[in-house]
Design goal:
33% of the residues lie in helices and 13% in strands. The chain has four helices and two strands. The chain has a two-stranded antiparallel ribbon. The termini are far apart.
């Protein structure tokens, strides 16, 4: 009995029309769209769609850090001596996030605004 030898088959390449590619690139670049989601929904490998997006010259950039400046809407009495304010210490631990604040009691409003943004 002889051993059966087979030659490895070449993968079948699928031709995609330029209109199809540009449609998928446009869909992938829409706000809130997921490149992987668009690719899977249209039967294309996500890495292939990412390559088409890159080749189209369009850039998918992740959102960058945007500094936030919070201004207090509280009007302070400028005639109150600073000695009347008390020091407040706040410690927050949530998973890997650890926050520690030491501030004057007059800054509680700002602390609340910062924590609202950070802990979303």
């Amino acid at each position: 009995m002889s051993a059966l030898q087979t030659t490895p088959k070449r993968p079948v390449r699928v031709y995609r029309a330029p209109e199809f590619k540009s449609k998928l690139v446009r869909l992938a670049l829409e706000p809130g769209a997921s490149v992987s989601g668009v690719a899977v929904a249209h039967g294309v490998n996500p890495n292939l769609l990412r390559r088409w997006v890159k080749e189209s010259g369009a850039l998918i950039t992740p959102p960058a850090f945007v500094p936030v400046r919070i201004e207090s809407s509280v009007v302070r009495d400028t005639h109150t001596p600073a000695s009347n304010s008390q020091r407040v210490e706040v410690n927050i631990a949530r998973g890997d996030l650890h926050i520690q604040f030491k501030l004057d009691s007059l800054q509680i409003t700002e602390l609340g605004q910062v924590l609202r943004e950070v802990l979303r």
